[in-house]
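User: Sequence in, structure out. Go.
Assistant: Echoing your sequence, followed by the structure tokens.
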Amino acid sequence: MPSSSTFGGVLATLPFETTTTFKGATSSNGTGALETTNHNYDYGSVGQTPRGFPQLKVLDERASVLSTGQQSSTNYFYDTATNRLKGVIRRGYTQAFDEGTGTFSTVERFIGTFYFTSRVCSGGSADPLGRTLEVHGPCLVSSLSSTDCDVGSEAPITQYEYFGSGSGADSYRLNKVHRLISGSSPSS
């Protein structure tokens, strides 16, 4: 049954949430699951009247296969006023080779993809319709609080170009996609 919560003095019925997914389980309560994923959500449309409370997945978390007792996760970041996805950062573990000692060690790594409504690399104003104009990544980032690829890192960049309003049947539709496969991330 959906839950109810109060937001800014307004009682809202929130949608159902899938909070846990079990893969390879032998029963519906998760017994013997080979993989368990926990899901967390937030609710958008902050500041909109009436507020719609759309469900936005913010976290998928599962046990790491490389680092016992640690979690790997996929973290989703939104503009909760517009419900637009701003970025996805995957946190996990990998093996890094130390040339000095000749051994491998397990290290934490963050990989992000970021979505912008303006052309960050070449400059320009935000899209008036809130469409994604530029995507950075996937790329290595320093933490879950990163808002773009690390400065100076090599990252793929994709730019979207749309037809204008006077283009007949093509008005506002996607016109071109520009991909820079291994360009430097923006300097800001």
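User: And one key feature?
Assistant: The chain has a mean pLDDT of 86.
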